Amino acid sequence: MSHVLLKPLLARKSPPLRGRLSVPGDKSISHRALLFGALSIGRTRIDGLLEAEDVINTARSVTALGAPAKKTGNSWEVTGRGVGGLQQPASPLDFGNSGTGTRLMMGVLAGHDFPVEMIGDASLSRRPMARVLDPLKTMGLEVQSDNGDRLPLTVRGMSDLVPIEYELPVPSAQVKSAILLAGLHAAGETTVIEAEPTRDHTERMLRFFGADVSATPDGNGKTRICVTGNPLLQGRDVKVPADPSSAAFLIAAAVIVPGSEVTIDGVLINPTRTGFYETLREMGADVTFENQREEGGEPVANIRARHSALKGVSVPPERAPSMIDEYPVLACVAAFASGETAMHGLAELRVKESDRLTATADGLNANGVATRIEGDTLVVIGGNGKVPGGGLVATHLDHRIAMAFLTLGLASDKPVTVDDIAIIATSFPEFIGLMEGLGAVLGPVPGSSCGAAG
Fold first, then answer.
1. What is the rounded average pLDDT of the residues 62-83?
2. pLDDT > 70? residue 27
């Protein structure tokens, strides 16, 4: 996707946001459903797949590897080839902006004895891959690159990988998942040890497809996650719940725009993903989970949010894995709180689609909100319900920065402009249309040809 021609958009102070709606399927689960479907015997049908660019690139990749993924009616179907049955693609696999798709696919390809070139867009090509590649190379993956640990690079796996026991140096569901996926092709048991819980969609879905996976406390505060190699995975019907990271922007908007009340149906509330909502409640936000239930092995609920007076809080570093994608929008919410909000343990934000720590602080500063960066901590000084606004935010090809600051503008005194909305399509192409449906005022920047195209 080209970003040579930027598509700026402006968000204005809006009337009360009201409505009940659904958001698209969870991105993490969508990626995994496609990959596990490709590694299974038979057909996998996926309802609610997120049809955003990141996920579509994963669908194209499994198709290129000989496991066709196509949309049939309102569902997607993947014709699997079994754990060891993928085929060498005829051309490089292009992951666009998707770090998740890239890193999980590295684990899949580690168990296949043929070379595959992996490429991505400019943003993805700047993101480091060593944390995934290093343990995979220990298992037998070969890597060729002229760019160190960055794309483009070529990987070549082997059919009988060496099982390993690996302790994660930092919490990362992507690294954990890549190792477990590679472990499907290893003789024996592959173990990942994590000191802090990370999202567990891979473990849940592997069990759902028939793999032997266990998660056991080791008595020292850590968890040992083990997978047995060479399982016979069976195609399944998967229902993808609504993405809590996408819902976060709409919930945040309801909390900061006076008079608002918004309900989002069927949202994933896996405890490894709800740190943002827990933090909002600590800040005093009226956010409730209603009709809690289980669908497809994952807990879901309807989330209702109302405008609330907020206070600053300290967000502990151990919460970061459960809300790593929500810090930019949390920082924008914190701008409306009374007092300071300190978010600790944000080192991971420096290696996302952009340096999100710096980009978030810069965007807030441009809109009259004082911030401090102290090592890996971001401190936002709240305006007690008032944010000046009026600034231009550089998105740095980062969809979450774009959406977070459009959300900020809905309650700021002056309009907030983001420099490019095209990148939003990588994860949440319906974002603008859903916001406008609730009553949000979004529109073209004066002197620009950009409109509010969802």
1. 97
2. yes
Q: Which of 52, 12, 5 is nearest to 431 (CA)?
A: 52
Task: For residue 192, give the amino acid letter.
Answer: V
Among 93, 177, 196, 197, which Cα is nearest to 135's?
177
* Integer angstrom CA distances of residue 110 from 63, 91, 201, 234: 18, 18, 20, 20
Cis check for the bond before 24: say yes or no (omega within 30 of 0). Answer: no
Rounded to whole angstroms, the Cα distance separating 157 from 144 reads 12
Cα 28 from chain centre = 6
Q: What is the mean pLDDT of residues 239-268?
A: 97
Q: What is the C-alpha separation between 337 and 322, in angstroms, rounded?
A: 22
**Reduced to 3 states, what is the DSSP secondary structure of residue 20?**
strand
Task: Tell me the per-residue pLDDT of 293-343, one tens digit each, with 9 for 90 and over.
Answer: 988 779 999 999 999 999 999 999 999 989 999 999 999 999 999 999 999
CA atoms within 13 A on the CB side of 243: 26
Write down the pLDDT at residue 348: 87
Pairing, β 18-21 against β 223-228: unpaired
Measuring CA to CA, which residue among 114, 105, 115 is closest to residue 154? 115
Q: What is the mean pLDDT of the chain?
A: 95
The secondary structure element, H or E, covering residue 33 is helix 27-38
Phi and psi at residue 327, in whole multiples of 5°?
-60, -40
The sign of the CA dihedral 320, 329, 361, 432 is positive
Q: What would the mean pLDDT of 408-418 be, rounded to a whole number? A: 98
Share of the chain above pLDDT 70, in %: 97
Residue 2: predicted pLDDT: 39
Contacts 24+ apart (CB under 8 A), 144-153: 144/115, 150/125, 150/126, 151/95, 151/102, 151/118, 151/119, 151/120, 151/124, 151/125, 151/127, 152/92, 152/117, 152/118, 152/119, 152/120, 152/125, 153/117, 153/118, 153/129
What's this model's pTM, rounded to 2 decimal places?
0.87
325 included as an active-site residue: yes
pLDDT tops 60 at residue 453: no
Which of 325, 398, 419, 420 is labelled catalytic?
A: 325
Sketch out the chain's domains with CATH numbers. 9-25+241-443 (3.65.10.10), 27-239 (3.65.10.10)
